[in-house]
Amino acid sequence: MFRHQGKNRTFIHDLRLATLLSFVAGIVNITGVLAVNTLTTNVTGHFAFFAEEVIKYNYAAAFSFFVFTLFFLMGAFTSNFLSELVAIKRPGLPHVIPIALEIAILTTVGFFGMQSDLSSVEGKLIAFSMLFGMGIQNALVTKISKSTVRTTHLTGLFTDLGIELSQLFFL
């Protein structure tokens, strides 16, 4: 599912990848809702809240929502950057490090994260971590499937932006 690239990828590989992505994203999303009362699998809503808070001149809240989008972007960047670095020395294993990092982040949040208010420091750290992890996942899945399996709207845009920004280091 992760190893097959280019012409070696089949519909079944993409279907398995999409199924796994949906399962993990569903778990992460409900965890984010239960832990900090916010969605943590994409950034479209957070960017809309950012714009709303700017219009209301509530810059502290706007800043928090903007940082949410940046953590997702950093996750997408990190995923592709690490994949490209590993691919230089180990072409068959470029996805291992990003997947391991996502697993570590989500496991840490699962074991140590507690139900918290989003306005608290702990609540923000939980949301930041989960959004970073979802940025990793979305970039990885987008790259593996050559954009066949992907998210849409602003989430997809930030995923693509994170991938392209990390590519600047490999030109």
Characterization of the model:
- This protein has 171 residues and is an all-alpha fold.
- Helices cover 73% and strands 0% of the residues.
- Helix 3 (59-89) crosses helix 5.
- The longest helix is centred in the middle third of the chain and has 31 residues, at 59-89.
- The protein is globular, with a radius of gyration of 16 Å.
- The model has no long low-confidence stretch (mean pLDDT 85).
Entry summary:
Helices cover 73% and strands 0% of the residues.
Which features does this protein show?
single chain; 171 residues; mainly alpha
Rg, Cα atoms, Å: 16 Å
Distance between the termini: 28 Å
Q: Sheet bearing the most strands, described?
A: none
Q: State the assembly state of the protein chains.
A: single chain
H-E string = HHHHHH
Can you count the helices? 6
**Residue ranges: pLDDT <50 for 5 or more in a row?**
none
Helix content: over 70%
> What is the number of strand segments?
0
Indicate the topology:
Layout: H1 11-36, H2 44-55, H3 59-89, H4 96-112, H5 121-144, H6 153-167
Helix pairs in contact: 1-5, 2-3, 3-4, 3-5, 3-6, 4-5, 5-6
